[in-house]
Amino acid sequence: MNTDESKLKAALIRKRRIELNWKQEAFAKSLPMANSSFSEMERGMRPITEELYKNIANKLKLPTLTTEWLKEQRFLMDLIKEKLYFCDYKEACSLYKDLQFKDELLNNSILFLEYNLTSFIYNVTFSNNKETKKVKYLKKYIDCLDNTQIYQFILYQGILEKNLHHPSKALDYFQTLFDNPYSINYFVDLLYYQTAICLIQIGHLALAHKYNNKAENLFKENDNFKRAAFSQMHEAIIYTHENHPTEAGKIYEKLLKTYSQYLTDQDINIILSNAGNNYVNATQYDKAQNIYKQLKPGWQNIPEIFYGIAWTLLQTDQHDKLDEFLKYSKQYPKNKFIKDMLEIINLQRKPNNEKEIETKLKACEKYLNREGSSEGMIFIYEQLIQYYETRSIVKQVKYLKKLNELNKRGMQYEQ
């Protein structure tokens, strides 16, 4: 038995014994075995003979699994991670469903840590942040993970923090991996990619350019053209934040020509959503309208597009079309922020609604701060600044300062 397998068997014995409410001393006595020797064995400090393991497995009701079956499950878990890397989410979901059918067997095999790590990676990928319990679970057995598994675990802890709107915490995890003497194929690509996103979020745009370009080159080397396309989209977002909408527009145009064959309609809609916001932020509403005309079927699943289209119609005085669009938008689900934005847009074109608009904007500011989300704050602050400026109220200074702290970050929808 190799060292890694021995450590996994020891960890499995400890886990299963606790699950079955066996006290260590009582279980050691049942073998029979000295408690001190059994304790050392459970901690991976004493070898486990095949005969002893069979005896323990029988008492703990562990399944008998063939080497071939274990090999197949390892291959399946590696394949799920690969599909997630290449954004083949439909296939990844199908494979993961197959994996879940074997939940009990996997959790009672030496693959229990690899299975829980794969589940963690899968759920973080789909922003299922309820899986935070897996972090504590995996940390408990971290001494049993190999270098590849530890790299993956650290990376996805960082991605989880990013999903929870904690980019600075995420960057701490990512820096740990940059300090590593080794890297893991595919996962180092994602490391640069996710680091660039966090740097955009905290406004470190020069560094974001650097890491984003590195990610794109790595994705191209591995023929991951979908991720390369989204890296280019992030590059355009950086230019938007740097107040270079024309340069951003050129990137959007180029990436759609270069990568459209690798993208689904929804991928294209995500890119067009950001391109539209680029021109809305630059008050180039004619260009924004041209972008929105290119949307593919299913764009209604991206709430941010409703904001962009409605704001464009408001600013171009297309009030009849705006009425029609706001009515149309009610049939589609949207988060609270987008709903409030559409309501504010509706209020802004009608007289004598100033106080109601101010109240609504400040309510939005309050819940966005509570949720730790900065994506919509630029809109809120700009509207409050405009509101106070037109009334010569000094409160505008407060919001100008807050806006500067956000480094002019706007709404974004990243993959």
Automatic annotation (TrEMBL):
Domain HTH cro/C1-type: 13-70
InterPro entries the UniProt entry points to: Cro/C1-type_HTH, Lambda_DNA-bd_dom_sf, TPR-like_helical_dom_sf
GO molecular function, one term: DNA binding
SMART domains tied to this protein: HTH_XRE
Protein name (database record): HTH cro/C1-type domain-containing protein
